[in-house]
Amino acid sequence: MKQIIKGGRVIDPANHFDEIADVLIEDGKIAKIAKSIKDKDADEIDAIGKIVTPGLIDMHVHFREPGQEAKEDFRTGGNAAAAGGFTTVASMPNTKPVVDNAALIRSLQERANQVSKVHIELIGALTKGQEGKELAEVGDMALSGAVAFSDDGHYVKSAKMLLNGLDYLRAFDKVIINHDEESSLVEEGMMNEGHRSAMLGVKGRPTVAEDIAVARDIMLAEYADARVHVAHISSANAVDIVRQAKKRGVKVTAEVTPHHLTMTDECVDLRDSDTKVNPPLRSQKDVDAMCAGLKDGTIDMIATDHSPHAEEEKDQEYGLAPSGFPGLETAVGVLITDLVKTGKIEMPLLIEKMTAAPARIFNLKGGSLSVGAPADVTVIDPDLEWTVDESEFYTIGTHSPFAGRELVGRAVLTMVDGKIVMRDGKVID
Ligand SMILES: NC(=O)N[C@@H](CC(=O)O)C(=O)O
Hints:
Layout: E1 2-12, E2 17-26, E3 29-34, E4 43-46, E5 51-54, E6 56-61, H1 74-84, E7 86-91, H2 102-115, E8 119-124, H3 138-143, E9 148-150, H4 159-170, E10 176-178, H5 183-186, E11 191-192, H6 195-200, E12 204-205, H7 207-224, E13 228-230, H8 236-247, E14 252-256, H9 258-262, H10 284-296, E15 301-302, H11 311-314, H12 331-340, H13 347-354, H14 356-362, E16 377-387, E17 406-416, E18 419-423, E19 426-427
Parallel strand pairs: 1-4, 1-5, 6-7, 7-8, 8-9, 9-10, 10-13, 11-12, 13-14, 14-15
Antiparallel strand pairs: 1-2, 2-3, 5-16, 16-17, 17-18, 18-19
Helix pairs in contact: 4-7, 7-8, 8-10
């Protein structure tokens, strides 16, 4: 079985390649990339005017298995990923029960492989039940295939616990991903603390909560000579703390979400829980710092923090509604429209942050179009105009803050191991 993706601009940051070229795929692997490939036995896929990239990777999604399948499961989440142009995603363990043991990692991986159109990696909990009291069986989970460890959704309050985890996981070369919000400073807060929260008269979650947490984690990683990854960074000061740490050689990496790169707390309307998320949408100064951090390499990668919830939960009043919203199906459009088309960042850098960088940090198979690599490929139409319509989402989650937005740029084809799983926005069964 052979296919040729013809005439696209092939951007493969891992191989420093950016040219108009054809991509030959044979038996589910990348076989050749060259100016003009002719093979009468191959199916042709026209990519003229389009961008051909390694399959996009999202290391931060919540697929809610086990226990909360009414919000999302591996099948619906996998379909949402395929629709958004992602070929590999990593699912967080804040489920019911929490994914904190090797038996669960193994059984969930089997199920994910059966029902998902894209590769699903599993992140194990750092502590039992994500309660922060006792280390989970992280070694066994690592040996059973857990890609990283995180108490995401919760701050690891005990510095000693985090240090134990860092010391232990160094031997496995696994990364701890931290949700950095110092809990005592964010209790009851439902949005960013600032001008807007004051105007609305609600309790805020200050950026200093994130800054303290990021600083502590960096000090611990430096002390333990271990790797720590900051999830969904959102505060300007926190970005600067990571920048300084990297200069000292600390093994810290960071990710930012599309919403923290493009939206501010000025759009929070308490009548609608669409904008409720942790960490909260911040100020313009913070948003600008996210973009600067992405450009200068302080922020290594982009991750969506795709956090679907059931409609009836998000329909509650702002204070009661859960935090988070879906992000897989809007990411490419939002990032191209608000960052690339506005000239804030270049397309190759965007692609690097969504392919080569996560693959490098988490030691994944994908992330490049190297000859012999699995043919995980995304074709993006950078000029396609479309409007975000939640009724067309594959995710169960609704209440996207991007609903109704007119965007430019969209993934139009997703290929996993040489198999087309999405074409023109439609997931293929
Ligand atoms: N990011 C979110 O707003 N929500 C996350 C958990 C969390 O990180 O708080 C979720 O699981 O829904």
